Every structure is written in C-alpha cells, then in structure tokens.
Task: inverse folding
C-alpha cells in the first residue's frame, strides 16, 4: 500500500494491520517452537523406560512448551486478529494509541526472545512446570539463572499485554463509528473486550506473584521459603491469575466460532443478547474459582465445597453459549468450507473439554485426577480443541481479507481431517491414563501405560504434521492463490465491506455509518464538518498517502530492544545492562520529542458510550489504574495471607511500633498527602490558565515527592542497620516489597513530572500541558491512595 | 502369599476392581458422572450433528431471508431457553454435588477409630519416608495391616486396618497418591495434611505409591511399594524393629 522500504515498514510501522501481521508471524513462529518441544518430550514418553531425554531436559521442555503455548502463542495469535480486525470491525481507522500498539508488539517479541534465550543459559531454563510451584521455584532447589530469566521474560510479556489491553479497551469504547452501538459489535470484538478485561485484572496479579518470586530469587526475601508464605501463598497468587488466564486463552477463539456459525449458516446469531452477558458472567466468575486447582492442598472443607460450587456454576454460561451457537444453525443453509469445518471442530472439542471440566469441579473425583494425564487431556480439549481450533478457523476465514487471495480449499479440508484425527488420538487417550502422573519423564513397562502412550505420541506427530499442510497452503496461496473478492463468505462485520486487503486507513469511501438497515459511508467533510481535520490532521479515507507519512515511529522497536537487553543484562552482566539502559533512555527522549508533534491525536467522531465524557488518555489512565488496583490488591492479599498464617505457623508478627517508627512513617504520610494537594492546585491553575501557578505547584509536588523518597531511603537504611533486612522474616520481606514497589511508582511519577515541568516550561503556557497534568493527576492520586492503605497496614496493625 | 500386583488388574475407567472402600465409592461416583455426561453431551451432540446435516446447503438453495450482511445482523432468539437450561443444569449439578460432598466428607474425615494406625508420611527429594507411632521408619516401602473386622475397640496392638496418614514434606511441594485406592493429598513443607484409607486385601504392590506434583528431576521415580499384611504379620513386623 505505501511504498516504503520493507525494513522501514516492518520495523517502524504503527499501522494496526501491519502490527497484526507481525503478531501473526511471531505467534506462529513460537507455535512451531513450542510444538517441536512437545514432540521432543512425546518421543521420550513413546516407549517405557526410554532414554531420549534426560530428566532435567524433559522438565525444561515441558515447562517451556507450556509457557510458550499459553503466553507466547495462543493469546498473541488472538491479538494478531484483534489488531488487524477490531479497529475495522468497530469502524475506526486505527487504534487509539498506534505507537503504544507497536510498542506492545515489540515488547512481546523481545520478551519471547528473552524466554527462548533462557534455554541456552548455563543450567538451562525454568524446569518447574508452567505452574512454577513453590518452593521448587526458589534458588535453593532451582538455582539456574535461566529460571530467573524466564521470570523476567514473563514480567516483560505481562507489561506488553497490559499496555495492549488498555489500548484496545480505549479503542473499542471511544473510537466506534457512528451508529456502531456496543450491541452491534461483532462477537469477536466482544470476545476481545472480555479477554482484555480479564488480562487487565489477572495479569497484574501475576506480576505481583512474579515480583515476590524474583525478590526471593534475587534479594533473598523469604516469601516462598518460609512456612508462613510457602507453597500455598504461591498457589493462591498464581491461580488467582491462572484460572482467568485459561479463559483469556479460550475466549478469542470461542467468539470467532460464534461469528463463523452465523456467517456460514447464513443465519443471525441465536440470542446474541444472551451470549454477551454470558461472556460477562463467565469472566466475572473466573475470578472466583481459582482454588479448584488446590483441592488437595488441605484447605478447609467448607472452602473446598464453595469452590466446587462456583466451578460448576461457571459451566452454565458456557453451556448457554454452546446451545445458542448450535441453535444458530437451525433453519440455515450451511456451507462447509474450511473455516466452518474448523469452527464446528472447535465447538465439538470444546464440549468434550467442558464435560470433563465438570468432573474436575468435583472435589471428590479430583482425588484421582489431580496431577495426572486426565488433567492434561482436559485442558488440551478446552484450550487447544476449543481455543486454538477456533483461532485456526479465524485464520482461514480472514486469510482472503488479509492477503487478497484465496487459500486452497481442498488442502484446507485435508488439514481439517488430519487435524481432528491427530488431535483425538493425541488427547483422548490421556483421559484413560488417569493414574499416570503428569510431567514424569519415564515410566516402567509394568505400569501398563505403554500402549496408550505410544498412541498419544503417534497422535502428536499426526497433529504436528497436519499443521505443515496449513503452513504450505497459506504460504503458497498468499502469493499464488486466486484473487479473493471483497466478501467471499457473506460476513456481517465491517471488514467485509472494504477491499481485500483493506487500504491503509481502512475505509476508502469515508466514515462508515451503521444503522439497522446496513452500512453507508459518509465522505469525511460531511461527517463532521471538517472537524476531524483539526484533530491532528487525520481523516478517514486517507486518499493517497497524505497522513501515512506519520503512520510510523522508530521508537517502539528501540524501547523494546532496550528493555530486553537491559533485563538480559540484569542476569548476564553489566555491559548488557548498561547498553540496554542507555538505549531505553535514548528512546524515552525520542518518544518525548515525537509526542510533542501530536502523533496520537486520532479522534473519534462516532459512538463513545459509556465513556463520552472521558478523553482517550484519561480513560486509558483509569483503565491502567484498574490494573494497578489488581496489582496492589494482590500484594495486600499476600500481606494478609502472611499475617493470618503466622500465628498458625508459630511466628510472632512484630508489634506495632516495635520495628517501624510510627512517627516517622506518619510524617512521611503527611508529606505525600501534601504532594497530592499541590497536585490538585496544579490542576486548578492549569484550568485557570495561570502558568506561574502551574509551574510553582508542579515544582512543589516534585519536591515533596522527592522528599518522601529521601525519607524512605533513610528509613530503609536505619531498618537495615537494626538488623531488619530483606531476609529477616516474612514481615520484613513484605514490608520491603510493598514499600519498594510503591517507591518505584513514586519514582516513575517523579520522572513523568519532570517531563511535565519541561513541557510547561518550554511552552510557557498552560494549554499544552493542561491535559497531561490532568492525566498525571489521576496517577499521582493513585500513588497517594495506595500509601493511605499501606501506612496503617505496615505501621499500625 | 503375595497377590498379583494391582496394575495387572487395572482396566479402563469403571472396570477397576474394588480394592478399598475409598476406591469403590470413587468408582460409583465416577460412574454417576459418566452417565450424566454421556446423556447430556450425547443429547447436545445429537442435536448439533442433526442440525449440521439437516441444514447443510442444498444445491441451488437461496440464503435465508434474515441472512447477515455487512453491518446488519438481525436480532432473534428466545431468552427463556437460557433460563430453562440454567434450571436444568442447576438441578443436575445439585444431584451430582450432593454425591460429591458425601464422598468428600468421607475422604476428608478419618473415622474416630481407637485401633487406627497413624503414620507420618514425609515426602522428600526423591522418596517417601513413613514414620510409625513407635518411631519405626521405612523409606520406599509402606507396610499397613489389612482390614480386621474382629478387633475389639481400644485393645492395644489390635489394628483395625484404618490407616490415617499425616502427610508433609521435608523440602518442596509433593503430592502423595495411591491411585488404586483413589487417595491423594498434597505434601507441602510446613503443613500437615490428613488422608486415610482401609485396605481390603493383603499383598505386595510394587510402586503403588507415587508423587503427583512435579518436584524436580526425580519426580518420575518418586515411588514406594505398598505392602498390605494380615493383622498378625503386620504386628510382628511392627514390634520386631524396636
Ligand atoms: C503438538 C502439539 C502438542 C502436544 C503433542 C502436546 C503435548 C503435551 C503433553 C503430553 C503435555 C503434558 C506433559 C506432562 O505433563 O508431562 C503437555 C503439557 C502442556 N501443554 Fe501441550 N501439547 C501440544 C500442543 C499444545 C498447545 C497448542 C497448547 C496451548 C495452546 C498446549 C499447552 C500445554 C500446557 C499449558 C501444558 C502444561 C505444561 C506443564 O505441565 O507445565 N499444548 N502438552
Ligand atoms: Cu481453573
Ligand atoms: Cu514429585
């Protein structure tokens, strides 16, 4: 479309469709890597007492397979489609924050490379299973540096995903075309809304669990080595993230299946108005079932029963959705082309996975299933059978839209048949191995597990090889396939109303206007009286390349590279750390200069309900804070857990005032709260247009924040001197982590404040800085509010 | 006179012979769930495939009138169906859950049996240590008495066959399981979890005890043999080592 040098296009693009393609290739690359790992360890298990892999190699292969498939394959594959199609489906010309979108991708890639490189660190990578149970994950039992590297890679990936979810939610809520009410959004976009919300709430919890783990591994805190925290602390924190995560994996593919059932049966979705609330209910309930992964840990009987019931309840919305999908077919005229075949396969496999899930919900049946191949069978039916198969359906479905060419239908059908045979040979027999522990690298012939395992391995290779047919088909067809029409399937979402592939700004004929009778396109000027032009000069349509000049940025890739190199350096050596930090610093300055040119000012002219009154950036900041609440909330949860657990395990939590200086802490609290007040003043001055008042109150805020940090440093120093160190006990560990991450937030705030002050100083006026001051004010308020909880928790209780 | 090891008698789910009351009850609960699953999933699949076959595109057929097109998806569907399905599922789950809770209560609460044998089970990298009330210790092998219905309550040295395990770990997270008895409980450092069973028949059962949580490179080999003896021979062994 734009005749850029390919290197410039693919490295610097901020176009959501290009970013989507980058996600697509990268996630499929990780799919192949993780699949090969699976075939390696399936080879080991094919025969009893096989010696193809060493035990530690087996454990690393299983762990990396699981982590890659879940976090670097499935969600990013969904993200690939979401990037490409969500903006088009809502009738927007790009994401709300295109540069941040590119940043998410590059950070994702850099985290993936970091994860892969951990394989080659001495001692290998993480070998504790994707669930990373404590205390096997601590240095005492798993000292290898590759394990820590995997932890950092996960953190980086979480950062990428959180930024991305904020971006998507703002985009979907604020950039919809006129008439595109929420209820008119296609199911895929709805699925992505809930996926994003789940990620926004669950991923920060995982970040807090990982923070404790990394603190244990790097600074010697005692969260997972002490009996007060230990295995159960990790279990709770991990599975609070872990169960929502499995729905993150499922929902995108599952939503695609709904859209495809409707499209290919030529019938409207049955009860879409029920399906969407069911997604919502399932998403909410997903945060209430985590302890079904802990049925054997010895938690109390009433808790077991409660989690048994919530787990059963969560199957009800899914059952309703499945029924609605099936009823969609009634009265239709079903075309069984490849996308529909995969959609049918996905639903069928998901039903089986859902049924075995009800077995798992039974706390009594779980005495047999926990930790066995039954579980492995169950979750592959849901996330691979349901999720991945649905995404593959989407891949075939959207292929003509993305490439403008048709894939080969016959090869697609062959792929489907072999895929289904391989899949069921691979995963069905696992249910019969409900005595065989999972993650064992060998078994004796006398167990009788040999024949089924051989079958499973044969199924694994069949399944793996079937994917080659798809890759060959798609790669060949992308160049040589017959030209595809604009709408080969008769789809209903807006991407089928634009050319294949869509032009750079998606809607060549103007702003799509959706109504009950269909979509029309309004030329830009008529749509909003030329208003869009005032907003950063971006118009729908984008004839020629008038704004594509600005559709790129060199900083996302640089920032991501810097972050990856710096994290690698944290573990592997100072030179890399310094190099990475320098790159990061340079890129930050670069971002600052760019944003002054107002690159992100793509404004919506359509539907914004229910967030009509918030600017994009403020909504983004509020969503980010929503994530922060999950982050700090989980850390507070860890505090409460340690605190409640200590009398039971014979540890006397220090009395208030015995360790911490309450007076000192109170003094610091007042300082921080005062800085909140000066920030309010800054806002008021910005509104009134008083430049001097604004600059003065920003400086005061900065000074108070810095003073807070200096005090904090003194406090830490004194505590250390008195023998209250990271590793003294759980109370000291959680104290340092909580005040440490809070302090990091203060420092990040001070950095942003410096930006603001420079901005205001340069502009010598309040207009430039006004909006940013408001957004910063939200953040600073959050930092203050967190401290208002922290202070009594740490000093007074 | 050792019996055949269990594994030679293992079959597909539902066919495992009764080896202990816990396994027996587990089997019948599992069967109940299987029946419910086959009926429900069967009905769903029949409807699914019936629709797929019946409504496949016929040659020359026109699209239905309300077929979706770009920007338009008609609204349809009957919300009452969702309510009916919810009610049906809740009543089904109600039945299943009552049975689950009954078995769970059985598994969770060892009987108040004065003639029970209490054993401390300690998982370590990589093996199981069994500590008996008289401080006898075994590693890699677990001896218990089979059921003895003639025991007079309270008589010392008369083992009823009830075995109560206090399970913990010396290092990392393990999970203690006897698949043939459908008994399992996590072995967690710093915590003691209880499990219990009664064995119905004596015999030597190699590698009948396994670890069910990844615990390092030796996880696959973290096994112990189960030796179930007649009450008398168990008692002789029990006293012999002190
Ligand atoms: C070639 C295809 C695949 C094969 C042969 C395969 C096989 C397996 C097997 C046998 C295990 C259990 C290993 C054990 O417990 O010892 C496993 C674990 C796992 N698989 Fe797959 N799988 C495949 C594809 C996938 C896909 C596509 C996903 C997800 C999208 C996935 C996600 C997982 C996860 C999360 C685990 C758990 C890892 C752990 O235990 O830490 N797998 N896989
Ligand atoms: Cu779960
Ligand atoms: Cu183990």
Result:
């Amino acid at each position: 479309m734009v005749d850029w040098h390919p290197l410039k296009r693919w490295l610097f693009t901020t176009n959501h469709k290009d970013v989507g393609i980058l996600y697509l290739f990268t996630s499929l690359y990780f799919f192949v890597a993780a699949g090969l790992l699976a075939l390696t360890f399936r080879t080991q298990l094919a025969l009893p007492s096989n010696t193809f892999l060493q035990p530690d190699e087996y454990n690393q292969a299983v762990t990396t397979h699981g982590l890659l498939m879940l976090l670097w394959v499935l969600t990013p594959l969904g993200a690939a489609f979401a990037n490409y199609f969500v903006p088009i489906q809502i009738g927007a010309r790009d994401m709300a924050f295109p540069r941040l979108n590119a940043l998410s991708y590059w950070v994702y890639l850099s985290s993936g490379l970091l994860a892969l490189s951990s394989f080659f660190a001495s001692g290998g990578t993480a070998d504790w299973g994707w669930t990373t149970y404590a205390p096997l994950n601590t240095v005492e039992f798993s000292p290898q540096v590759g394990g820590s590297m995997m932890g950092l890679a996960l953190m980086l990936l979480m950062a990428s995903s959180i930024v991305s979810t904020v971006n998507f939610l703002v985009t979907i809520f604020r950039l919809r075309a006129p008439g595109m009410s929420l209820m008119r959004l296609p199911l895929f976009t709805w699925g992505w809304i809930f996926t994003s919300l789940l990620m926004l709430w669950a991923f920060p919890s995982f970040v807090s669990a990982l923070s404790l783990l990394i603190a244990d591994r790097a600074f010697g805190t005692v969260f997972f080595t002490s009996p007060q925290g230990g295995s159960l602390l990790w279990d709770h924190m991990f599975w609070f993230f872990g169960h929502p995560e499995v729905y993150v994996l499922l929902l995108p593919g599952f939503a695609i299946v709904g859209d495809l059932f409707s499209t290919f049966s030529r019938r409207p979705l049955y009860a879409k108005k029920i399906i969407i609330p069911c997604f919502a209910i399932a998403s909410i309930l997903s945060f209430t079932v985590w302890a079904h992964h802990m049925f054997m840990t010895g938690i109390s009987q009433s808790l077991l029963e409660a989690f048994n019931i919530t787990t059963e309840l969560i199957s009800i919305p899914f059952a309703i959705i499945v029924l609605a999908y099936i009823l969609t077919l009634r009265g239709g005229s079903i075309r069984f082309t490849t996308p529909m075949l995969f959609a049918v396969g996905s639903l069928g496999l998901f039903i089986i996975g859902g049924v075995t899930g009800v077995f798992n919900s039974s706390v009594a049946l779980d005495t047999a299933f926990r930790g066995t191949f039954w579980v492995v069978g169950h979750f592959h039916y849901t996330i691979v059978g349901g999720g991945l198969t649905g995404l593959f359906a989407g891949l075939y479905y959207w292929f003509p839209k993305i490439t403008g060419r048709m894939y080969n239908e016959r090869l697609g059908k062959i792929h489907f048949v072999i895929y289904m045979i391989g899949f069921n040979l691979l995963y069905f027999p696992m249910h019969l191995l409900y005595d065989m522990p999972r993650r064992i690298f060998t078994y004796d012939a006398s167990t009788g597990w040999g024949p089924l395992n051989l079958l499973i391995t044969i199924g694994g290779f069949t399944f793996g090889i079937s994917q080659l047919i798809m890759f060959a088909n798609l790669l060949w067809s992308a160049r040589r396939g017959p030209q595809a029409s604009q709408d080969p399937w008769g789809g209903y979402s807006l991407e089928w109303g634009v050319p294949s592939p869509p032009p750079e700004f998606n809607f060549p004929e103007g702003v799509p206007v959706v109504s009950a009778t269909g979509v029309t396109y309004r030329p830009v000027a008529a749509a909003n009286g030329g208003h869009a032009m005032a907003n950063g000069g971006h118009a729908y349509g984008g004839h020629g390349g008038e704004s594509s000049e600005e559709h790129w940025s060199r900083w996302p890739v640089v920032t991501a590279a810097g972050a990856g190199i710096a994290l690698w350096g944290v573990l592997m050596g100072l030179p890399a750390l310094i190099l990475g930090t320098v790159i990061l610093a340079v890129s930050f300055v670069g971002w600052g200069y760019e944003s002054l040119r107002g690159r992100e000012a793509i404004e919506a002219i359509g539907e914004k309900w229910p967030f009509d009154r918030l600017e994009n950036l403020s909504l983004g900041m509020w969503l980010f804070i929503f994530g922060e609440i999950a982050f700090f909330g989980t850390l507070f949860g860890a505090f409460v857990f340690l605190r409640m657990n200590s009398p039971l395990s014979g540890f006397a939590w220090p009395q208030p005032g015995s360790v911490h200086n309450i007076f000192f802490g109170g003094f610091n609290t007042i300082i921080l709260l005062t800085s909140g007040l000066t920030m309010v003043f800054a806002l008021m001055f910005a509104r009134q247009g008083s430049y001097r008042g604004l600059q003065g109150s920003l400086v005061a805020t900065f000074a108070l924040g810095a003073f807070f940090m200096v005090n904090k440093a003194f406090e830490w120093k004194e505590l250390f001197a008195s023998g209250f160190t990271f590793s003294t006990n759980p109370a000291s560990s959680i104290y340092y982590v909580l005040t440490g991450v809070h302090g990091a937030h203060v420092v990040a705030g001070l950095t942003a404040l410096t930006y603001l002050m420079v901005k205001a100083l340069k502009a010598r006026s309040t207009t430039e800085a006004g909006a940013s001051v408001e957004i910063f004010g939200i953040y600073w308020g959050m930092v203050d509010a967190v401290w208002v909880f922290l202070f009594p928790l740490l000093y007074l209780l | 006179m050792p019996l055949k090891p269990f594994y030679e008698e293992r079959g597909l789910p539902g066919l495992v012979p009764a080896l202990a009351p816990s396994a027996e009850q587990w089997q019948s609960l599992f069967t109940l769930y299987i029946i419910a699953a086959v009926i429900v999933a069967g009905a769903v699949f029949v409807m699914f495939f019936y629709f797929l076959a019946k409504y496949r595109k016929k040659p020359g057929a026109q699209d239905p009138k309300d077929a979706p097109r770009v920007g338009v998806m008609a609204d349809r569907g009957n919300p009452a169906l969702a309510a009916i399905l919810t009610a049906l599922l809740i009543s089904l789950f109600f039945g299943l859950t009552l049975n689950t809770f009954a078995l769970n209560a059985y598994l969770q609460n060892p009987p108040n049996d004065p003639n029970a044998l209490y054993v401390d089970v300690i998982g370590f990298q990589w093996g199981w240590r069994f500590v008996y009330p008289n401080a006898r210790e075994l590693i890699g092998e677990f001896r218990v008495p089979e059921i003895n219905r003639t025991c007079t309550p309270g008589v010392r040295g008369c083992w009823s066959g009830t075995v109560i395990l206090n399970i913990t770990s010396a290092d990392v997270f393990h999970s203690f399981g006897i698949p043939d008895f459908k008994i399992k409980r996590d072995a967690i450092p710093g915590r003691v979890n209880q499990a219990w069973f009664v064995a119905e028949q004596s015999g030597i059962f190699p590698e009948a005890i396994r670890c069910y949580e990844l615990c390092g490179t030796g996880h696959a080999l973290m096994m112990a043999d189960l030796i179930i003896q007649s009450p008398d021979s168990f008692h002789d062994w029990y006293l012999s080592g002190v």
The first helix of chain A runs from residue 6 to 12. Residues A 35, 38-39, 42, 62-63, 65-66, 69-70, 73-74, 129-131, 376, 380, 383-384, 388, 426, 438-439, 460, 463-464 surround protoporphyrin IX containing FE (ligand 1) (CB under 6 Å). Chain A has 23 helices and two strands. Chain A touches chain B through 107 residues (CB under 8 Å).
